[in-house]
Design a protein that fits this description.
Blueprint lengths: L20 E5 L8 H14 L4 E5 L5 H6 L9 H6 L5 H4 L1 E2 L5 E4 L8 H5 L8 H6 L8 E5 L6 H9 L2 E7 L8 H13 L6 E8 L6 H14 L12 H5 L7 H4 L4 H17 L1
Parallel strand pairs: 1-5, 1-6, 2-4, 2-5, 6-7
Antiparallel strand pairs: 3-4
Helix pairs in contact: 1-12
Length: about 270
């Protein structure tokens, strides 16, 4: 039987020496597949025996709802970011996926921005909160909201890498300049180690000329930072959250499962 995240050998393992690699998945444009990518990339890591923590940093809580109903949530990332006495370890929820844990979000996270106004440590709350838990995991994946406010800034300050999903649609590159400008500002001061891991093209419909043209544009802009893997439009990917499943348990033979497994392999090659 696979080892579950709740097993003491996986969660809070005091014998680990290396800190986890932290990957923030961000794009201020909504509907580009951030949550789908966060959930299934984290699940793919876990299935490769990587001890993985998935953090839901989006007030919409769609990542959380993929695994749990609201009444099952004991504590959330809002508690961690608003109260220094609450640690990540206090709110980690083991999932039914072996080697995968979740730090959930609730709608209360939406009021965090207002609460952090004027706080000198506002951009560093998540980084500080992760300090005690990074040695418990191999990889930490952060799902962010479709905005470049203080919540997303917290993810970028805490991360080693930024992964950008871009939808293969007419307005796909809209807003990417702002995101890259934010990346450079973060690198200039609070997190000089932050790197652009890569760009993943999502919701790709190979039947259309438009999708192929958009893919070429993305390649022209980002060059070798674009992953070879492309995530196509897939009904199974859309259905799986409703059944509280990742694509790997819901439709393991689907193109979505194959593509996210390939993406995970590419990501691990880049971070290693």
């Amino acid at each position: 039987m696979p080892v579950l995240c709740s097993d003491s050998r996986v969660l809070f393992n005091e014998s680990r020496k290396m800190a986890a690699t932290v990957i923030a998945i961000a794009n201020q444009k909504g509907g580009v597949g951030k949550t789908t990518t966060s959930v299934n990339l984290a699940a793919a890591f876990a299935l490769k025996d990587r001890r993985t923590l998935l953090i839901d940093l989006d007030p919409q809580s769609n990542t959380t709802l993929t695994f749990f109903s609201p009444e099952e949530i004991r504590g959330s990332i809002y508690d961690v970011l608003s109260d220094p006495k609450v640690t990540v370890r206090d709110v980690v929820h083991p999932t039914k996926v072996a080697n995968l844990c979740l730090v959930p979000a609730k709608i209360s996270l939406a009021k965090l921005e207002a609460n952090l106004v004027g706080q000198f440590d506002a951009p560093f709350r998540l980084k500080d909160a992760l300090a005690g838990a990074r040695e418990d995991f191999d990889l930490i994946v952060i799902d962010t909201p479709p905005a470049l406010g203080i919540i997303t800034v917290n993810a970028l300050v805490a991360a080693n890498y930024l992964l950008v999903p871009i939808q293969a649609s007419y307005y796909s590159l809209e807003g990417t300049d702002d995101l890259l400008e934010t990346l450079e500002r973060i690198r200039a001061r609070p997190n000089p180690e932050l790197q652009l891991l890569g760009v993943i093209v999502t919701l790709y419909d190979k039947r259309t000329n438009l999708a192929r043209d958009i893919y070429k544009q993305v390649r022209q802009v980002f060059g070798d930072k674009v992953f070879k893997t492309v995530i196509g439009k897939n009904v199974r990917l859309e259905e799986s959250p409703a059944y509280k499943e990742t694509i790997f348990s819901f439709a393991p033979d689907s193109s979505g499962a194959i593509e996210y497994a390939q993406l995970a392999k590419e990501v691990m090659q880049r971070v290693s």
